[in-house]
TrEMBL record:
Keyword Ribosomal protein in annotation: no
Species lineage: Bacteria, Bacillati, Chloroflexota, Anaerolineae, Anaerolineales
GO biological process: base-excision repair; mismatch repair
Full protein name: Adenine DNA glycosylase
PROSITE patterns: ENDONUCLEASE_III_1 (PS00764), ENDONUCLEASE_III_2 (PS01155), NUDIX (PS51462), NUDIX_BOX (PS00893)
Record-level Gene Ontology MF annotations: 4 iron, 4 sulfur cluster binding; 8-oxo-7,8-dihydroguanine DNA N-glycosylase activity; adenine/guanine mispair binding; metal ion binding; oxidized purine DNA binding; purine-specific mismatch base pair DNA N-glycosylase activity
Amino acid sequence: MFTQISRQLLDWYQIHARNLPWRKEESAPYAVLVSEIMLQQTRVETVIPYYQRWMERFPTLESLAQASLEEVLRYWEGLGYYSRAKNLHRTAQILVQTYRGEFPQHVEHLRKLPGIGDYTAAAIASIAFGQKVAAIDGNVRRVLSRLFLISEPLSLPETQKKLKSLAVQCLPAEQVGDYNQALMDLGALICLPRSPKCLQCPLSVLCRAYQNNQQNDIPVKAKKKSLPSVIVTAAIIRKGDTVLLAKRPLGSLLGGLWEFPGGKVEHDERLPECLKREILEELGVRIEVGNHFGTYHHAYTHFKVTLHAFEAIIQDSQIPHPIEAEEIRWIPIPSLDKFPMGKIDRLIARELVERKDGHGKFMV
């Protein structure tokens, strides 16, 4: 059965493989690295324009290694999970400085690089170097769980161990990179999370879930916990035609990105009071809170955020200092797009530009 799976899947892949830009690079390890890091927790259609823009600016490992982290984050902005960009940048530097620009070819060496886990290491090793290793991502887990009718939740360690064993047994003797990509494509195009297209699947005759009419019940997932909600405030502090931005510490969430300063609301704290306290703690100055600028919502992996932005001014000509931030700067509003930001702060920045009229005044 295992040989039949790989043979039929490779035949299908020759005809139906997705036309993806990183597959035009003759499986160059750098192209595989960039694409696989971008594809972590991000859909292919979202990644494609980011990948193309990235490769125009950073076409080689060396060009990425030589770039500043701030520029790297700016080109990554919008993809989220910014630790991926920082790890990718650091990996490029390590490969250039320590490996003379060459990629290690084996999984155990690739795994030692920042941000490269089991799946990404296996993808690079198999696609770029033809190593016989199984690359197991979410799509592959779904396909295998249906093929072999695995009814235990995928999150269980025993289930993951079983899936890995089955994945290794299915590997062909040759064309391992194509086979791994074929599995990914099958999961993305045919073996969908909901309403899989079983009648179009090259493996339907071998699929135990389909043969038992259980394809919609597999894979079994553990129930998700509801995400906690956090309320935060942010200050739009203006001085003439500039606004004050703070750079988040590198080790924090969204580290290295610029933001409008503020912070989390404490229990029973009113929004203006929260903002005054946060700015005093973060910048060492007292502010007057003015108009409410906007309310913004965003969901991260482990929590949801509602942010309230207010216009504010610093009292008594005090000078702010980066007590908690990595750095602060007064930025001309037309130049805000040059500074990497998280999603909410970018929305605020764009709205600031839109509200500004031709005379340098804000229409609030």
